[in-house]
Amino acid sequence: MAKRIDGKVISKQIKDELKEEVAQLKAKGIEGSLAVIQVGNDPASSVYVNNKKKACEYIGIGSISYELPEETTEAELLDIIEDLNKREDVCGILVQLPVPKHIDEDKIIQAISPKKDVDGFHPQSVGAMTIGEPGFLSCTPAGIIQLLKRSNIEIEGKHCVVIGRSNIVGKPMALLMLRENATVTIAHSKTKNLKELCKQADILIVAIGKPKFIDESYVKEGAVVIDVGIHRNEENKLCGDVDFEKVEPHTSAITPVPGGVGPMTIAMLMNNCVESMRGQK
Ligand SMILES: Nc1nc2c(c(=O)[nH]1)N[C@@H](CN(C=O)c1ccc(C(=O)N[C@@H](CCC(=O)O)C(=O)O)cc1)CN2
């Protein structure tokens, strides 16, 4: 029977470990706050930002919230980031993505000091990860590695197919799996014979951005399936990129949506904040 990988339980374990560590750091006089910036009022972003602030409170670190109007200019946002880069009480800075179209996302990411880049999106963080140097890891891919390891799923030597090549999930995911000694294939919208390729995967990681796109015909019997997608239907019900009901019986382990990868993104963000407080980066 397929094992359901419970991201809620594993993310809680991680946050509980971090809570203890934060208490120890505080006892040594080390404190820090996460600056959370949201531009505009996209409802999904508001949910994620709120959950991030709640997670800060849970593990015992501060959060400084910036809820900026949609019309905020790029220059105004850059000024705020510049100030936050200099503040000693701020251990991490995150700008919730996506930002409104008139703001250049890359410029914003690059303005955040790599020392406070707890999202792990800065080119310096990505470069460090690529060559195995210390640096903040992108939260969703790092969360998936934790999900696999804490579920005792062997990665080394396995064929992992990652569908999706975004800078925040697909590419770093492939690199982290490679770092764990998996044999990695990246598939994307132009990949030929996607189904045949996916059927070769021992571990299939899906970040394709299409609701319920992956059915059982893409999955090798007994494979591990990780669903990064998150979509809301007309009845406000969430689903992933994987058709869970059809695929689950054919897997050895699978993540649900909700309650799989999503909560891990926030747990790993907290992990990066604590790493920043430790001053290890
Ligand atoms: N600055 C960033 N922006 C975005 C990131 C990111 O890592 N940093 N990732 C995504 C959104 N995201 C975090 O911000 C995120 C997405 C989903 C979840 C989550 O816990 N999902 C729950 C369901 C929650 C719901 O009711 O909608 C689940 O899957 O169980 C957390 C964080 C894009 N932007």
From TrEMBL:
EC number(s) on file: 1.5.1.5, 3.5.4.9
Domain Tetrahydrofolate dehydrogenase/cyclohydrolase NAD(P)-binding: 138-279
Catalyses which reaction(s): (6R)-5,10-methenyltetrahydrofolate + H2O = (6R)-10-formyltetrahydrofolate + H(+); (6R)-5,10-methylene-5,6,7,8-tetrahydrofolate + NADP(+) = (6R)-5,10-methenyltetrahydrofolate + NADPH
Domain Tetrahydrofolate dehydrogenase/cyclohydrolase catalytic: residue ranges: 5-119
Entry-linked InterPro entries: Aminoacid_DH-like_N_sf, NAD(P)-bd_dom_sf, THF_DH/CycHdrlase, THF_DH/CycHdrlase_cat_dom, THF_DH/CycHdrlase_CS, THF_DH/CycHdrlase_NAD-bd_dom
Keywords assigned by UniProt, alphabetized: Amino-acid biosynthesis, Histidine biosynthesis, Hydrolase, Methionine biosynthesis, Multifunctional enzyme, NADP, One-carbon metabolism, Oxidoreductase, Purine biosynthesis
Protein name: Bifunctional protein FolD
UniProt organism field: Maccoyibacter intestinihominis
